[in-house]
Amino acid sequence: MMFSQTSKIIITAAVLVFVGFLIWQSSYLKSIVYPKEINLPTGETRQEGEFMVTDGVKHSVPLSEIIGGGPPPDGIPPIDNPTYVSVSAAEEFLNDQEPGLAVSLNGFDRFYPFQILVWHEIVNDTIGDERVLITYCPLCLSGIVFDPEVKGQRVEFGTSGKLWNSNLVMYDRLTDSLWPQILGEAVVGEMTGTKLAVLPSDQLRFGEWKKKFPAGEVLSKDTGAARLYGTDPYGDYYTREGTFFPVAGKDSRLNQKDFILGIVVDGKAKAYFPPAVKAKGRIEDQFANQTIVAVYEKDLDVVRLFEKRPDGSLQRLNPFAAFWFSWVSAHPGTELYK
User: Fold this and answer.
1) How far apart are CA 107 and CA 160, in angstroms?
2) How far apart are CA 338 and CA 336, in angstroms?
3) What is the pLDDT of residues 229-249, one digit of tens each?
4) Edge-to-edge, what's the strand order for the sheet holding 197-199?
5) Residues 200-236: pLDDT tens digits?
6) Considering the entire predicted model, what is its pTM?
7) How far is 25 from 19, CA to CA, in rounded Å?
8) Which residue ranges make up each domain of the chain?
9) What is d(CA 6, CA 39) in angstroms, rounded to the nearest whole number?
């Protein structure tokens, strides 16, 4: 087969781009597997109440547990000015099986595709007039939405480039304190011990979401960053055994990467295994002097948790959704419903 000179140039350019991507992806994964050093205090540690102070820096976890994840601070760039497209426009780059994080708040229904979040991990968003923090850690399959209030202000967060038990460690742009996503709590810096409120969200597929919210908004690929949306640098990580980083959580009640919904009530932790709830449709469970109701919502194919009040009404709970290993690393004494 004969090719014109123009065709040869186009083919050569395409090959070079593809090879460049493979080299870049290899470098990216190498940076994940071989984390870099990070700069944290290294002096003597002294106790201060329930916290520790090292070189004048307050912290609530051993600093040795916080390791470099490869990229520098904001090397995985948060989306600070998100834009949105309609469901019909999103169908041009999302199929019905695409997973994502769904939020309904202040009259808005939004879907954040994981194929975009995997490259950014944080969206500093505003829904209505309320600033919200959309977070996703691909290493833990944890999608969690927070009220980003720090010192009475709702502020932006960034990616620190650090990990705690393989989980995304965020920093707030007001005090530079460090916040592991799976805790929703500052563990290093001025805000140590402070928790962020969790807002309601669901992890689900685009197909189910768009049926219920056909007029909803979908996070656009117009993020201001050049990324290969639709490709995943973590490959088959989600389905194969093992983690890229050492984790403290070793608990054989579930497989490491089974997906759970975790709650903390009065300092006690419990995880709910969605397939067990789905099999029954609805369960009532006594935990920490509360009645927890777990319901399978068939139209969205999700499990939601509620607190049953004395009058019989249900108050929705906002759990931490993540891989089992991430939850047990954060809460080694957790109870489990399975």
Assistant:
1) 32
2) 6
3) 999 999 999 999 999 999 997
4) 122-127, 130-137, 142-147, 197-199
5) 999 999 999 999 999 999 999 999 999 999 999 999 9
6) 0.86
7) 10
8) 1-34, 45-219, 259-337
9) 51
